[in-house]
From TrEMBL:
Protein name (database record): Unannotated protein
Lineage: unclassified sequences, metagenomes, ecological metagenomes
InterPro entries noted in UniProt: Epimerase_deHydtase, NAD(P)-bd_dom_sf
Record domain NAD-dependent epimerase/dehydratase: where: 9-174
Keywords linked to the UniProt accession: NAD, Oxidoreductase
Amino acid sequence: MVGNKQMTILVTGSAGLLGSAICDFLAASEVPFQTLDLNPKAHPGATNHFIGLATDQQLVQQAIGGVDAVIHLAAIRNPNYGTPVAVFSNALATFTVLDAAASANVKRAVIASSFSATGLPFGQLPVELPKLPIDESFTNQISDPYALSKNIDELTAAYLTKRFDMRIVALRYPYIGDHIELLPKRYAQFAADPSLGKKELWTYIDTRDAAYVAVDSIVNEDIAPGSFFVSANNLLGPHSAQDLVAQFYPETKLSSSHGKFDSFVDFSSATSALHFQPQHNYPNEMS
């Protein structure tokens, strides 16, 4: 998969769950990378580590010097971790990083968008969900600052892609979890009370698949830019898609061909554009 070991990648938000997994993957693949994070502790495989905020233009420009691509993850991860103004600063960080990349003639970038761009998980208004599964044609229902910031991120990526002939991929990640601790815990919660997963449509992605698609979207030559949903193949929890729709979304039309435990996210666009195919489904894989 990693075809160009001479490519150097900047990873922002490198100390987080996904950032750490991506750095581990790059190190194992012998791809040079450097990192930017508020956490002063560097990944042992990083060739250089920059400490600070992704909104710091001077620091970001310094960090981007000498790299060939950027994976931008640094952000406040949901609206419960800051004020609306603080959460919306995510959009400034994305612009700062991608604009610096464009100025440095760095043509490839991946950014962490989110399933939350739909407005469903944290929305403050009633949800309209005409059909399932959802895909990129879904009309986002923005009523919270986090969803707004993610939509601005995707517009920023589209603008810079067109303006500077870049190849920027925005990955709409759902809940990201590892198969040792986080996914088992969340599975048990949804098993006991499926209403807990309603706003997120019981979607998830294994950390390993989340890391793989980010790196592959950088190093693979045959990739199309854009914003894409990614997901595991299945719903998280023991309840069937049909039962969940009947109980929580009775007015929603479920595709007649929808499998019993298939994800409510149609990620076929990511399969076509990014060759994405999840390899890890919980609880089918326990190791």
